[in-house]
UniProtKB/TrEMBL annotation:
It comes from Mariniflexile litorale. This is SDR family oxidoreductase. GO terms for molecular function: oxidoreductase activity, acting on the CH-OH group of donors, NAD or NADP as acceptor. Keywords: Oxidoreductase. Belongs to the short-chain dehydrogenases/reductases (SDR) family. Pfam families: adh_short. GO terms for biological process: carbohydrate metabolic process. Coiled coil: none annotated. InterPro entries: NAD(P)-bd_dom_sf, Sc_DH/Rdtase_CS, SDR_fam.
Length: 275
């Protein structure tokens, strides 16, 4: 059955791929993004491939912007059945320069060098808000359409660092842990009104956000990139397509008794102790 599916951050790498895959199943797709041009490009690609999609500007940190987007979605596509909370990411202001603090770091005066003690609370807040509040607000706005309707669900995007924090990115790790926790909380809260809530926890996918952290300009792996591949039993980064089948399953009635789960899609990263 064709559903109306709203994806936030769907102008980006991972969720644009999910939007296109869901459109191929015959669903009507609302591509939401802070960048209207990126959202419209994805919607255009879907429409010329024979699907149905609209590109809509929306800021997941502003409820009024989401309410305006919802009006457009409702009038052009209908009431929302499925919400995928894809907008998220890290920011350099919430990132330390080194994985571990060394005594000599406190004397390091190199421009841009940051220890834990230099982290900017506004940077931490930005990352926390983008990932956690940016999941909560779209849910408040779009899940109202789902209450009491059959076949509705929400899919959040968590991360590996929600299970065990990654070095250097305390804000992003904490925020994604909050997204996983919220997924379980919401699954219980919505369990009587017919809305299932689940999450994907992608492993490491090369995207614009992390390319500079994981690869050098000539495409070789950085030390961090090498560590990740060394810790990933399948020995590769994920491709956006690796997320599709689990997304289709969690958005489909085939998973009608599945709620509150966070599924790692990580080539075995979270199962590997490193030994
Ligand atoms: P991306 O940067 O390609 O896409 C993110 C999109 O979100 C961008 O199009 C951006 O414009 C949009 N966005 C940013 N702020 C927004 C806001 N305030 N309101 C609306 N849209 C906003 O990133 P991606 O790699 O496709 O990541 C998608 C999701 O997957 C994120 O939640 C990310 O944290 C998560 N994730 C990514 C990886 C990875 O390896 N790439 C791993 C685990 C989890």
């Amino acid at each position: 059955m064709s559903k109306v599916i709203v994806l936030t951050g769907a102008g980006g790498v991972l969720c644009s791929s999910l939007a296109k895959a869901l459109a191929k199943q015959g669903h009507k797709i609302a591509v939401l993004d802070l960048k209207l041009e990126a959202a419209e490009k994805v919607a255009h690609d879907i429409n010329i491939a024979g699907g149905t999609a609209i590109g809509v500007v929306a800021n997941v940190l502003e409820k009024a912007s989401l309410e305006t987007a919802k009006k457009e979605v409702n009038s052009k596509l209908g009431s929302c059945d499925i919400l995928i909370n894809g907008a998220g990411g890290n920011h350099p202001l919430g990132t330390t320069s080194n994985p571990h603090l060394l005594e000599e770091d406190l004397q390091n005066t190199t421009e841009g060098f940051k220890t834990f003690f230099d982290l900017d609370s506004e940077g931490i807040q930005f990352v926390f808000n983008l990932n956690f509040i940016g999941t909560l607000l779209p849910t408040q706005v779009f899940a109202k359409d789902m209450v009491g309707k059959k076949g509705c669900s929400i899919l959040n995007i968590s991360s590996m660092n929600a299970f065990t924090p990654l070095t250097k990115i305390p804000a992003y790790s904490g925020a994604k842990a909050a997204v996983s926790n919220f997924t379980q909380w919401l699954a219980v809260h919505f369990s009587k009104v017919g809305i299932r809530v689940n999450a994907l926890a992608p492993g490491f996918f090369l995207t614009d956000q992390n390319r500079a952290l994981l690869t050098t300009e000539n495409g070789d792996l950085t030390p961090r990139g090498n560590t990740i591949i060394g810790q990933t039993p399948m020995g590769r980064f994920g491709e956006p397509e690796d997320l599709i089948s689990t997304t289709l399953y969690l958005c489909d009635d085939a998973s009608s008794f599945v709620t509150g789960v966070v599924i790692p899609i990580d080539g075995g990263f979270s199962a590997f102790s490193g030994v």
